[in-house]
Amino acid sequence: MNLEKVLEIVNECVENENIPIEGLTLMYKLDRDTHKKLDEELFYNTNNNLTNFVHNELIEINIAGVTFVFEIE
Predict the structure, then answer these.
(1) pTM of the predicted protein model
(2) Do residues 62 and 22 touch, judged by C-beta distance below 8 A?
(3) Residues near 37 by Cβ (< 8 Å), separated by ≥ 6?
(4) CA 13, CA 16: separation in Å to the nearest integer?
(5) Which of 30, 53, 57, 60 is buried most deeply by CB count within 10 Å?
(6) Is the pLDDT of residue 23 over 80?
(7) Can you tell me the distance from the alpha carbon of 69 to that of 28, in angstroms, rounded to the nearest whole number?
(8) CA distances from 6 to 1, 38, 51, 72 (A)
(9) What residues are paired with 60 via a beta bridge?
(10) Which pLDDT score, from 0 to 100, does residue 52 have?
(11) Strand (E) or helix (H) holding 6
């Protein structure tokens, strides 16, 4: 799982009229390494260089009305 895959999933949900996105939450359990890489990728794509990366055990993001929750398996 990486940011590109997350964006593909969002696009599919938003483009498909048969998927109601209001209140939609998708939860993924990822292995520790994949979880940390995704956390870093999200951090560096959404933050400026003024803060330092700190790995979060729980990642929760909302993109275009679709909420994603990523936990460590």
Answers:
(1) 0.88
(2) no
(3) 2
(4) 5
(5) 30
(6) yes
(7) 6
(8) 7, 10, 24, 16
(9) 69
(10) 87
(11) helix 3-15
